[in-house]
Amino acid sequence: MRRPGDELEVVATLGSADLHLTGELVGALNSFLYDRDERALGKVLDRVPKAVRMAAQQYLRDKCPAVLGAFTECGPVEAVREAVYFGRIDDEIEDYLEGAYTIGLGIRMSNERKPDGGVGWVIQLLSEEVSVSASAEPRTWAFPTGVKLLRTWTSEQLAGGTGPVHGALQVAEDAADRGQWVRIHTLLHSRYDVDFEGSGTSEFVVDVFDAPIPLEHPE
Description:
This protein is α+β, with helices and mostly antiparallel strands. The protein is built from 5 helices and 11 strands. The strands form 3 sheets. Strands 5, 6, 7, 8, 9, 10 and 11 form a 7-stranded mixed β-sheet that branches. Strands 1-2 form a two-stranded antiparallel sheet. Helix 1 (22-35) packs antiparallel against helix 2. The longest helix is centred in the N-terminal third of the chain and has 14 residues, at 22-35. Residues 1-6 have low confidence and may be disordered.
């Protein structure tokens, strides 16, 4: 496999019956490392033996770990509009999130305390939902330093007819009422350890921290 400096590294071994796929597999792996061409890689891995597919996926897990925060393993996720502030959780904020979620925008939301003691919610919409592999924790927003996580809720835990937006807001509101710092974000949870387009299911994630609600950032 080609790497910077023309180094070669063994990723997998193809049997004689599959040697005709060698060039295509090497090309797809190189494309994934350099420009994250998931579609091309997925098509090739669907055609090779299971052992080869697993070896390639293991290699990519080791060499292409997810990077949490504003950047992901697939590059930057851009904000599509300025942060929006809501004074409370109500039908208005639920409708806003439902609209963003319906058209596939990524969502990041957290609570903050105003100088007068009131609590509000800041929402940032992103250009897309970030993907995580099947074996990874359902999280694409890095933990803040020096803060203990109390609990994580995901929309996969929903039961009955409650939708993911309403469920996430209910968990967030309950925690905020106890004075706890809350962050909500969305992601695509892949069925595979190497994500391919269309393979993920969308989830809401709510992290509740053992920390007071932080003061709002100054303008």
